[in-house]
Design brief:
- The longest helix is centred in the first third of the chain and has 30 residues, at about 5-30.
- The chain is mainly alpha-helical.
- The protein has helices at about 5-30, 35-55, 65-85, 90-95, 95-120.
- It is built from 5 helices and no strands.
- About 90% of the residues lie in helices and about 0% in strands.
- It has one domain.
């Protein structure tokens, strides 16, 4: 198996896991906060599944949008952390295990997207 295929499978599995976590988050937000905000998070769930397909099927022309998507997700989560810290609710930041897992997955996905793009250029 080529390294590109291994990266594709790992990227697809992590993107699917990320989507599963955010399905729970979207439902909780829709019930507790706002239907519109829940739908917004749900949109990212769909985009994450598409990103998994990009990884798995090696769609070259979508590598750059895939990188941009994962960087946006990473920045969104980091800004969410900054919002927690500014409001003084630091305990909520460190006790939310889903946010921690998502941060790790976002970093790995952004790196995998960059690596697979770099491999394809060579």
């Amino acid at each position: 198996m080529e390294i590109k295929n291994i990266i594709g499978w790992v990227g697809m599995l992590l993107a699917t896991f990320w989507a599963g976590i955010h399905m729970l988050v979207a439902g909780a937000i829709a019930i507790n906060v706002s239907l519109l905000l829940g739908a917004f998070v749900g949109m990212f769930v769909g985009l994450s599944i598409i990103s998994g397909l990009i990884f798995l099927l090696n769609w070259r022309k979508y590598y750059l949008p895939n990188i941009i998507f994962w960087l946006i997700m990473l920045l969104t989560l980091i800004f969410g952390y900054v919002h927690y810290i500014r409001n003084g609710d630091i305990n909520a930041l460190f006790t939310n295990i889903l946010a921690g897992i998502t941060l790790i997955i976002d970093i790995i996905e952004a790196l995998l997207a960059l690596i697979i793009w770099k491999i394809d250029i060579e």
